[in-house]
Structures are given as C-alpha cells and as structure tokens.
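for the record, two folds in this file. i put them one after another cuz i was lazy. first one right below, seq on top, structure tokens after. the second one comes after a little note so u can tell where it starts
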Amino acid sequence: MSDEDREIDIESDADDEDTQTFDSDDKRAHHNALERKRRDHIKDSFHSLRDCVPQDDQLKTDRSHRTNSSSKTSRAQILRQAAEYIIRMRDKTMQNDKHIQILKQQNEELHQQIKALQKSQGGKTGHSSTFIDGDEDYESYEEETVITSPPPKKKKTKS
C-alpha cells in the first residue's frame, strides 16, 4: 500500500470514527434517558407502595410524623412492611372466613330451632305463624320466644 493510499484510508477511518462517536453518543444519551425513566418509574412505584401500606398505630395517629418518617423509609423497609401487611391481611381474611362459617352454622341451627318451635307450637294455639325458608321475615306468636346466642368471644389484645 502506498503512502497516498494509506492517507486516504486513515482519513476515511477518521470520518467513520466521528460518525461512530456521534452515533455512540446518541445511543448512550438515549440509553441514559431510558434508564432514568426506568429508575423514576421504580421510585414512583415504591412511593405508591409505601403510601398504600399502613404504618404502625403510633404513626397512623400522627399524619405529619408519618409523612416525614415515611419519606426517609428505605426500599428494603417498604418491601418488608408490605410483606408483613400482606401476611396480616391474609391471616385476618382467614379468621373472618372462619367466623363467617361459624355464624352460618349458628344461623342454620337457629333456623332449625325456629322450625322445631313452630312445629311443636303450631297445633297448640289459635294464632298463625309462618316462616319462609331463607327469608328473615316471619310472623311470631303473641308470646315471645327468646333464643339466646352464645356470648361474643373476647378480642385478644396485642401485647
């Protein structure tokens, strides 16, 4: 290769480097913008999660303290608090489901007692009494029959 050819080849390489540098700078700026947007989205998502998860009782009562404190909460703390909250809510839902089942069972037992009382008292008095299954409306006798339910359970206090 002659010196003249070498000079032309070097000049063309230099032009290519300028174009590559410009394209590389554009790509880098675009990548940086996308990365900044991604980080902002993650930051906003953490702030939304932090705001959705209730804090402890002390911070619930003092809103201004909660705002100042929660702004300093680390991402790891936000995730831990969210996980604990989800576990508490899952446990509470399971307890509520059990309580609903108990109430349904008690309701069914009371319906059975009402039917038995209606059947046993149906022929003894001149008054009519009707009970419609699944409906809460019924006419009662002049004498009031009281059926007591078990006392409510005491709530456990957290210590």
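(here's the note) second protein begins now
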Amino acid sequence: MFMSREIPTTFVKPELLTEHLVSVIKPILTSMVEYPNDIEVTGKSTDHTIFLSIFSDRRDTGKIIGRQGRNINAVRTLLAAIAARLNFGIVIEVIGVLDS
C-alpha cells in the first residue's frame, strides 16, 4: 500500500495515488448522504498535486459540506495527510449538480 515506508516517494505515480484517494473517499461520502448512488468522484493529477471533484445530488451537497464545512474539512484533512506523506498536495471541490 502507499503508506509503506518501503516505497520511496519518488516512485509513486500520481495516477495511482489519485485512484487510491478516490477509493478512500468514495465509501466515506456514500455513507454520509441520502442518495449514495449519485456520488461520483473524479480525479486528475499533476507532478505534485491531486485534484478531486465530488459530484453529488444537489440535495446532498449540504450534507457533504456539513455545518460550517466540518464534514468536508475532515475529509480534506484525511486525504491531505495521506497525500502529504508522499509529498503531494490535494485540492478538493464539491459540485452539487446531479439531479435525479
């Protein structure tokens, strides 16, 4: 796994880290919302930055963000800790555009 001390950070491919972060965040988000089938997470990467976009039903956007941003900040903190350990930054955006 990516957290192993045996893997030098110079050998971690950004695409693999992006896939890993998407697989970490998706179950967390689906457990928070009323319409879990409408959650979609996409990711792009550059050399040292991972960009994640969260698409959800408009009705669930508030649940993902949480009061005063507590939920999304907790998710950001978790993913930033994983990414920082491998010398990557992370940017997360929440887009509530999918209508059922």
